[in-house]
Please model this.
Amino acid sequence: MILKRVLPFSQELLTRVIEPGNSVVDATAGNGHDTVFLAELVGEKGHVYAFDVQVEAIQSTAEKLQQANLETRATLILDGHENVASYVETEIAAAIFNLGYLPGSNQEIVTKGASTIQAIEAILHKLKIGGIIVLVVYHGHPGGEDEKNSLMDYVRELPQSYVHVLSYQFLNQQNNPPFIIALEKMKAK
Ligand SMILES: C[S@@+](CC[C@H](N)C(=O)[O-])C[C@H]1O[C@@H](n2cnc3c(N)ncnc32)[C@H](O)[C@@H]1O
Model:
């Protein structure tokens, strides 16, 4: 199969951009899969800042990092990604958002359009030129459609001289398949 599913494509985008020594953000740590993936990419001298609003998610991410022997490469932050500017002072090479709810957990705790956009704005500000933000948009759950719509409205209005915006999605799959929005910063605002 030549066309990649959403998860491998999001990882390919991150792999293309992230270099050893970079600082990066996992905006939705969840069970920690992306945090571990990022911690491997940034190497010993890089760092991952991983956010989640649920204690269980932070604990699960901490365990995954320990199992992989990568815990020194990440700072786990029990707070909303909309507050990223309070925690991350360095330049960022890349960020990933997996929107929606944590599988196997409380489905009422979901990402929301307004705070997701606030986080994107803050990360764009800290993103290096050529850096990327990858959003994996799950939208089949209650509230998911609203978040998707406000996100699409927001990214469509971003000036193309500032940010390139790409969407990667299957158009003939059933049941609201997730899709990717990728933002690449082209110049300082
Ligand atoms: C789809 S899950 C993430 C899956 C994760 N990337 C993984 O590898 O397992 C979405 C996560 O976003 C978290 N979340 C919801 N609102 C948030 C916010 N404002 N800031 C940070 N995380 C948030 C949820 O608690 C949930 O764990």
In short: Residues 28, 30-34, 51-54, 57, 80-82, 98, 100, 102, 109-111, 115 surround S-adenosylmethionine (CB under 6 Å). The chain has a mean pLDDT of 96. The helical segments are 6-17, 33-42, 55-67, 113-126, 144-156.
